[in-house]
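Ticket reopened. Same input as before:
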Amino acid sequence: MIHFDRENNVFHFFNEHISYVVYIDGFNRLETLYFGERLKDDRDVLQARTTANENLYLDKKMNLLTPYPGDFSPHSRLEYSDHGEMDKRDSPIVIRNENGSTYTAFEYVRHKIYHGIKPLPDLPSLDAPWKRDEPFYNRDHVDTAEFVFRDVTANLYLHEFISIYRDKDVIVKSFQVENKGKKVQLLRAFSLQLDLPTSDYYFHHFSGEQNRERKEHIEKISHSVLEIGSNYGRSSHQENPFCFLSEHENSYTDGEVIGFNLVYSGNWKMRLSPEPDRSLHIVYGISDEDFTWVLGKNESFYTPEAVLVYSHNGIDGMSQTFHRLIRENLMTAPHTESRPLLFNSWEGAYFYFTTDSLLEYADHAKELGVDLFVLDDGWFGKRDSDTSSLGDWTVNQEKIDLHRLIDHVHQLGMRFGLWFEPEMVSPNSELFRAHPEYVLGMGENKDWSSLTRSQLWLDFSSPVVIEAIHKQIHAILSEYSIDYVKWDNNRAMGEHFSNFYPAEKQGEITHRLTLGYFHLLGQLREEFPGVFFEGCASGGGRFDLGTLYFCPQIWCSDDTIGSMRATIQYDTSLGYPLSAISSHVSAALDDSYRTKVDVALFGTYGYEMNPTKLQDADKEELKRGSEIYRTYHHNVIQEGVLYHLADNDLYSSMISVSQDQSQAMALCFCKRTRPYSYQFTWKLRGLDPKKRYLCHLDHKTYSGEYLMKAGYHFCNDSYGEPLFQRGKTLLMILTESNY
Ligand code: GLA
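Engineering reply: fixed in the latest deploy. New output:
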């Protein structure tokens, strides 16, 4: 809901739990007065703001105390800081006028309040279908205020959209820059500015590399600027756009937490600047490195949506809100029916398969209880290694009889999926030989140098290039009966000169690449509504809200060792629902199949190994996994509520509880070399205190209250195999019991 107090020019965005208050001050700027727990009575926020300012005077018109006009007040917390004037904090939008000036002075001119959230052109947007038939997809549960500011120096308008969800503690922000005057150049176009009254927070961010994605790092904000982001052409392994601020260092249950994410998949940046007065100034959005955008007369630029989640119940309050938002308001592909138990050929066969070997794989996969059989890399062009054929999306008929394989898979009652890497080309390919100008390069001599994994980025900023790939994928999806596509992206972007754009537009290429990715994904989704798309980028290099909009699940990491995966999935799940985290049991040697099954169950679940080489005992373990998956996964993992219990040097542990609290699965992964104690008390959360549960570990019943207050007590048998030891998991399944 949004309440507008006309007399005082105050806008109060609120729902049951949170309030966000902004106000138009005496300079016609939009100030941020408050972001936090719900204020029932908002009268004092305005008073507190005005008395906190120096240089106060009485603004007769508004009958309010505001700073002298022309005097910059460092205490003002703004929705937008102008660039080039006395406010030296980062402006979220920087524009170069035709005369070279980068000074802007935007002043409020009008606003509009409406139900619904505005879908952004060419960008994935919350609550909006890709095919934007209707202006607002869902008006019921979200309200928006659109503020319009006019630049006093040029004929430029800045629109800020602020939305609040009624049923979730979520604020969504974005900008539109509208040019009604002469041509200008956007030098920066972030999605939000957020000024918080204090910088007394811990900043949690998720950095890493391939095989070690999204490791949580916690920094106490002190006096230095913190900056995170990606210029890899994708959201990246190196930093994830999901991050958060917390009042307490690491409490899942207590204190204020503010979460951030961006509905985007390309280069991005966040900069947090603690100010001398200890306030915190944050800007966040598309990275401004190598970014410029030419905005002609009557053109607009829309920034992606930035999502803010507020919790005063610690980290899990924020996590659970993100999970619900992603599932209920972001994912547009059908995703609520049970996810398929998936078999992927990659880690078993790599490039080395024949039709017969895959038929045999399929038979074994069926025996393990698989629903969807996926043929990964190696089926197209002349691709027998990673040195050729990307860009040639025609079936390698000499290598594989794809119709025969698909028919066989379908006859076994499984669905069939295929791997693509649409944005890439191998220099050794028909496509590259015919069209070297299709690749991103260094310019002029079209010389490309930074070859990684023997492949180059196609220039997806160009509709011509996109169509060349679209035509081929469309032909495959039309000719073959394909139910699923894994969309990969296996190298980071290097040089990004485009042969299709003039010099002045080269700064647009990195954003245009991301728009091209969205465009082709959206187009194929529309043309093949029955096909389920999964995202991937050398493991989890593009795990973000832009991708999740189209692909309800994303391959989380190429690291499938249980012990590594337990951490990667735990940290990823702080911002993303388990149903988004694609996880398979592989043949990775380091851990037992039991450990790998238990860990993979806390994700979408699937298998990825040579199934003909499995030992009988291992097969039994996998069948156990399939059985648990079949019985509990949909209600408990896919649609359940996740609670993080601990992640310390001894163990990491979480529990997912079905919505009706009748079933739960808790996982504990032990990190310590020896049992640190022969005793271990496992305190659970999220259960119904009044219900009794059958614990499948010992076949005894316990009340929810007992398991949450006293905890489940283990006592390792010191003569036998300890229950709780390094690299091992404990999986506790709880089901409601009448006894
Ligand atoms: C990436 C993916 C893997 C697999 C290979 C195929 O590394 O993360 O799952 O698809 O590409 O080349």
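Residues 80-322 form a domain with the Beta-galactosidase; Chain A, domain 5 fold (CATH 2.70.98.60). The first strand starts at residue 2 and ends at 5. Please confirm and we'll close it.
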